[in-house]
Specification:
The protein is mostly beta strands and 191 residues long. The protein folds into two domains: 32-95, no CATH class; 103-190, Jelly Rolls (Sandwich). It is 6% helix and 38% strand. The protein is built from one helix and twelve strands. It has one helix spanning 84-95, and strands at 32-40, 46-55, 61-67, 80-82, 103-107, 113-115, 122-130, 139-142, 147-149, 159-167, 174-177, 184-190. It is elongated and about 75 Å long.
């Protein structure tokens, strides 16, 4: 908490970082701190936003609120919150070339399973499968969590196909399992 007048000269900036001319006295509220953070999306795009931290009289944090850069519109992160310099580096790492040769794993028959390496920097899954019923479609599981069926519900007696690709900056593992013969799933891990 500000306890009195401060002497010296400091540059005051607005939320956009541009200098602001102030007439009069500037008071500092030590109970609030705002910083620009970045929301790193799975597709490696970055969304900047403001996070305003609040503190009690002892300086202990009491919470935070997230807003868009305008400072008033609420924002809810949908990716991984990072310092912007870190997020930019991670996004560039995922978009740039990789040092090692990609590893390709093909799954085709019921019971075939593959778990990706946590060190893979980008993981791409190409799949084509018969979709007679949800129980027979291929599944994917992230870090041993809930199992997700590939393809949409209601796609019956059709071939489903698609591509999933993610930047793996957090060291996740993906487990893919084939639940019916004659499926075609390729998993590409880039290091």
């Amino acid at each position: 908490m500000a306890t009195g007048a401060r002497s010296g000269r400091s540059e005051v900036t607005g939320v956009d970082g541009a200098p602001v001319t102030v007439d009069g006295t500037v008071l500092v509220d030590d109970k609030v701190r705002t910083r620009v953070l970045c929301d790193l999306q799975a597709d490696t795009s970055i969304v900047e936003f403001l996070r305003t931290y609040t503190y009690d009289e002892t300086g202990a944090p009491t919470g935070f609120t997230d807003t868009e850069l305008d400072g008033s519109t609420a924002y809810a992160p949908t990716g991984t919150v990072r310092d912007c310099a870190v997020a930019a580096g991670e996004a560039a790492d995922c978009q740039s070339g990789f040092g090692g040769a990609p590893v390709l794993t093909a799954l085709n028959n019921s019971g075939d399973t593959h778990t990706t390496d946590a060190d893979a920097r980008r993981i791409t899954i190409n799949y084509q499968a018969n979709s007679a019923s949800g129980a027979n479609r291929p599944t994917i599981q992230v870090n041993g969590g809930a199992t997700t069926i590939l393809g949409k519900n209601g796609d019956q007696s059709q071939i489903i196909f698609g591509t999933l690709s993610t930047c793996n900056t957090l060291g996740y593992t993906l487990t893919v399992e084939v639940n019916q013969n004659n499926q075609d799933i390729d998993i590409i891990e880039e290091f």
